[in-house]
Design a protein that fits this description.
6 helices
Length: 174
């Protein structure tokens, strides 16, 4: 998708409710990190396909797994931020939820982009894109917008419940 924020919709809608099993910050980042490739192509004026190798399952999924490992290594540093933003549910997630979040997030990105762009080769080294179907563009964008709205509503609900619990706890202590 030309505007990476659309990829945040599925990331929020799936990542937040599943944050006990998937590392939500990794899943969110994995859903958008794949678009570093077209960003660099456009900004640097590279003679390289807009949706190149990182927009293939062959490279996207391992890149997501690598991202998951890096996020796992950074967990101790970033955990206070994640907790403050209510992106983590459990302390001490093992490595698996990070790797799974990374691989699934980048794979989902490729899956959503493949029907939209004729230059994509999702099953590289095959040069075909059997998923290409531009008539699905409104549905894919609609799905991303609606999952974004759902994920945002879920997040606002989490924030509201957290504030309510803190307020209730202080009232009981008085």
């Amino acid at each position: 998708m030309p505007f990476t924020p659309f990829h945040l919709g599925p990331g929020l809608a799936l990542g937040l409710p599943l944050r006990r099993r998937l590392h939500a910050p990794t899943f969110l980042l994995a859903n958008i990190i794949v678009d570093i490739e077209p960003f660099l192509v456009l900004i640097l004026g590279l003679r390289y396909p807009l949706h190149g190798y990182l927009h293939t399952f062959l490279l996207a999924v391992p890149a997501g797994i690598l991202l998951g490992y890096l996020m796992f290594l950074l967990e101790r540093i970033l955990q206070p931020l994640y907790k403050m933003l209510m992106l983590e549910k459990n302390d001490g997630l093992g490595l698996k939820p990070f790797l799974l979040a990374g691989g699934l997030g980048t794979g989902l990105h490729v899956l959503f982009d493949a029907p939209l762009y004729s230059d994509m080769r999702p099953f590289y080294p095959s040069t075909a894109n059997p998923l290409y179907n531009p008539s699905l563009t409104p549905e894919i964008y609609g799905l991303c917008v609606w999952t974004g709205a759902l994920g945002t509503a879920y997040y606002i609900t989490l924030a509201g419940l957290s504030i309510y619990r803190r307020f209730s706890k202080k009232k009981v202590e008085q």
